[in-house]
Automatic annotation (TrEMBL):
CDD domains referenced in this protein's UniProt entry, alphabetically: PX_p47phox, SH3_p47phox_1, SH3_p47phox_2
Protein name (Swiss-Prot/TrEMBL): NCF1 factor
Presence of keyword Endoplasmic reticulum: no
SH3 domain span: 156-215, 226-285
Organism placement in taxonomy: Eukaryota, Metazoa, Chordata, Craniata, Vertebrata
PROSITE patterns: PX, SH3
InterPro entries, A to Z: NADPH_Oxidase/PX-Domain, NCF1_C, NCF1_PBR/AIR, NCF1_SH3_1, NCF1_SH3_2, P47PHOX, PX_dom, PX_dom_sf
Length: 389
């Protein structure tokens, strides 16, 4: 048993392939202890043979000696003919199997049999294809269906993007690009890293290096929200460009524009600037280990830092200057202050008009006139006479 081990295995979906004959393979995202992430492809027959060998290696834990001691999960045998329906219906069981497998005692989950089976093979990076036969159909699990993996999407037509400049990868989990390359996007992450495939290659690519084929403007990109969403800085960052912000871990800020390249426009008091979205977390959200590990990856490059950009679109991509962000942000905050001031004044006026009677000053009683001597002598007692006369 070596130092290498698997942290997590996630079922992404499956592919329907047509070469050398029609068959199905499951797609797994395997996360290793060195923080690398690899996508692998396995037929169910392979997975079942792996499972049988694992049970033979650990007969006690597989329940062969005493069923009560079983901790290795069950896995149904392959059917005589595995079609699309059985491939689809089996995903819930398979996702649960992988989750349980990784969380078994280390002597099982970190044994060489498990490590070697989930390692990247040559066929994972360079699957055997035939250019004369149509491309594989990809069926991805939706976010909701990961909670209920029996629900699966239909055949997905992956979006095709074009590389606007050369990109040299900096880790094995990334993919290098040449200007003009056409890539299919499998997953778009809001941190600015997109998982793409190009012919036989797959890997993470900075979204800033990609442009859609149908136009320069990203319809998926949200409009600025100057009201702001409260986020907390999870990792410090020192500004490199003039329009970026330097923040420390624990700082509270407001996000006013979420951009697809992973660099969001944020506001700290009266100051605005760019900050890597992967270092931010929405206020109130729980900090998971997966999010923490993602932050160890470097921030993706910004669109504005890419050199020798060659777009296929004549019209430039819509951009907002940093000065416009500052001006609009200040204007919004000033309007909010004015509205609060006006509402406070109106409230004061209402209070004055509806002031209760108890708070109004009461009229003082009139002092009665002093009685005359004759009146006192006629109506008062002798003791009163003596005090007054």
């Amino acid at each position: 048993m070596g130092d290498t081990f698997i942290r997590h295995i996630e079922l992404l979906g499956y592919e329907k392939r047509f070469f050398p004959s029609q068959h199905y393979v499951y797609m797994f995202l395997v996360k290793w202890n060195d923080l690398s992430e690899k996508v692998i492809y396995r037929r169910f027959t392979e997975i079942y043979e792996f499972h049988k060998a694992l049970k033979e290696m650990f007969p006690i834990e597989s329940g062969d000696i005493n069923i009560e001691n079983r901790i290795i999960p069950h896995l149904p045998a392959p059917k005589w003919f595995d079609g699309q329906r059985s491939t689809e219906n089996r995903q819930g069981t398979l996702a649960e199997y992988c989750y349980t497998l990784v969380n078994l005692p280390h002597k099982i989950s970190r044994c060489l049999h498990v490590i070697n089976f989930f390692k990247v093979r040559h066929d994972d990076m360079n699957p055997v294809t035939d250019s004369q036969i149509k491309k594989p159909e990809v069926f991805l699990l939706t976010k909701d269906s990961k909670k209920n993996p029996t629900d699966i999407t239909g055949p997905i037509v992956l979006q095709t993007y074009r590389a606007i400049a050369d990109y040299e990868k900096s880790s094995t989990s990334e993919m290098a690009l040449k200007a003009g390359d056409m890539v299919d996007v499998v997953e778009k992450n809001e941190n600015g890293w997109w998982f793409c495939q190009l012919k036989n290659k797959r890997g993470w690519v900075p979204a800033a290096y990609l442009e859609p084929l149908d136009g320069p403007d990203e319809s998926e990109e949200q409009e600025p929200n100057y009201a702001g969403e409260v986020y907390v800085v999870q990792k410090s960052y020192t500004a490199v460009e003039e329009d970026e912000l330097t923040l420390k871990e624990g700082d509270t800020i407001e996000v006013i524009h979420k951009l697809l390249d992973g660099w969001w426009v944020i506001r700290k008091e009266e100051t605005t600037g760019y900050y890597p979205s992967m270092y931010l977390q929405k206020a109130g959200e729980v900090n998971t280990s997966v999010k923490s590990e993602l932050r160890n990856r470097g921030a993706p490059p910004r669109r504005s830092t890419i050199r020798n950009v060659k777009s296929i679109h004549k019209q430039a991509r819509k951009q907002i200057s940093q000065e416009a962000y500052r001006r609009n942000s200040r204007k919004y905050k000033q309007n909010q202050r004015n509205m609060r001031g006006n509402s406070q004044n109106k409230a004061n006026v209402i209070i004055e008009k509806n002031e209760p009677e108890d708070n109004k000053p009461k009229a003082q009683p009139a002092v009665p006139p002093r009685p005359s001597k004759d009146l006192i002598l006629n109506r008062c007692t002798e003791s009163t006479w003596r005090k007054i006369l």
